[in-house]
Amino acid sequence: MEWSNYTLFFFSSSLFLILAMLSLLSKNKRTLNATHLFSVLGISILITFVSILWITLGRPPFKTLGETRLWYALFLSVIGYITYLKWHYRWFLAYCFGMTLLFLLLNYLKPEMQNKTLMPALQSIWFVPHVIVYIIAYAFLAGAAIVAIKGLFYIYFKDTNDNIIQLADNLVYLGYAFITMGLIFGALWAKEAWGNYWTWDPKETWAFVTWLGYLVYIHYRYSHPSNVIGPLWILAFSFIILLICWFGINYLPSAQNSVHVYSGQ
Amino acid sequence: MIQSPKNRLNNTNATYFHSFMIAFGVIVLGLILQFIFGSINISFVRFPANLVILVLLVLSISIGHFKHKQSPIVQWLSSSKAAIASIVGFSVVSLLMGFISQGETTNSFIRNFGLNNIAFSWAYVFSLLLLVLTLGFATVKRIYPFRKQNFWYILNHLGLWITLIAANFGSVDQTHLRMNINTTGYNNYAVSEKGEFSFMPFSVKQTDFKLVNYNPRLTIMDSKTSTYSLKTGKNTIEAKSQNLLTIENWSIKILKYYPAARSVAGIIQPFDSLGAAPAALVVTENIVTKVQKQGWVSCGDNLMPELSVMLDNQHPLVMIPPTEKEMNLSVSVRSGKKEISKTIAINSPQSFGGWKMYIVSFDKQKGKWSNSTVVELVKDSWQPFVYVGLGMMIIGSFFVFWRGKK
Q: Which residue among B190, B258, B274, B390 is least enclosed by CB atoms within 10 Å?
């Protein structure tokens, strides 16, 4: 039904994203410029699919893991492209598109795409902003994590690269702004829905610890601007916490009754 | 993120080692006190005690900053090392909450150290206090003397400080009561979580209840395993007139759909009252054998049997009970001679004289004909301050987004 067109969109979008990645390898300037065309086409197809899905479902597609994966794929590609436009890091665009393809492929191979309806508690004006800012934040911070891993690799096996930590800073600040808003929107929503801002629900707890992790990074970077290794490790570690928060808690015994545990059914 | 001379941040003699020793030390101290004295008696910090604590906090931060700037304690509390150590300390306490199930437990070790109720433990309070102190000293340093470029720093830090204070003190002062209301008369008593009765300054009566369900979905069951043979969304069909779908080898078409119906002597007719259930008339065809079947499918209730269409010996087509889409509760509230009507929905509570009213549950047996509802009444005097703090942080995060690391 609603997802039945996915195959068509999946293959056409993937094709353009792969072409964009291939053209990144080129030394020829004209071929390199084609990256822009392919990127815009690939992303536009994704946006079209999400829009059609939203309209046909009659609700924002944020509930199932498959749907959040779709958004993650979309925002990773958009953020990768915006970052590329601004800083021209080819490897970062390639990484973002690679991750986009992975998430699209997961949705294609394992369609947990039930047209699940939204329970009343999720029907709130906070729902869309809360989830969207979180997904944007996760995409920025995933970018920061890959920058951290690359940076650590350079430091331990090659020469240090000063630009790396600058890019990490840029991504963390962007991601941090969004993660802060996501956390606050969630609290305001909970107050409207249940009368409490914060109940230390496991997802809330892990989201809060994730937020604190990036807070440590920002403060450490500020007070020790010349230290690079420490902050990169903090980034890598914070992303592990983020991953636990995102889907790791589905497997934690402490989180069995969380309202945030995604339904894969 | 942080402006101005860097040496001001790190002019403490304490090292990271010292800072972390202090941050973890207060947690260990908290655990020891917990073991000896048990959980903190929260009623001890209720209003006005929390206001006194707040005044003492503000005073000690101000006096520390203005009168004892050179004191090693103040220098440490204002340093970024103390900030980082206190954030990590509070993260550790939060992580304990993330790993250990909160609530009743039979494990005496966890219970003795209060690890199943960390938000009310000494370790939580101590590490929160340390965080509030370091955050407070860092903030006051930017407020006096004030400089324009520190404006957004102050928004973020003071916003968080106000939020932490107001949310934590607020959670102590908050009152949550449950009230049963119904259509027969006005009720004015409510029950606390501990089961204590209290009389409210107003009485409430249910005047109307509207429950809207999503259309139910039909799916194929495997009668041998008693499970839905096909779980994914592609394999359920929405009960809606003229809807058409092919599931595995069967094409299914919905001819008629009644959102509420009853069965009278085997005849299905629309009937909108208690005991009715949704029903769909379907025609199915096996694509391979071309065998056609027609019949009613319903999830059933008192006036309607559960109905299915057997597609073959093993696979009945069944209806999954509908899920709730929205509910609206209309109430009449009497206070003295005043009487007002309000409508409450999920995500849309209503206020009466300082109390907010939320829907908790309704009579599921009666479904959309429910004539009684449980509502939650919440009083939270600190709420405006939490909103101020969160508002400052939202504006602050726009600055973080816009300016990045400048």
A: B274
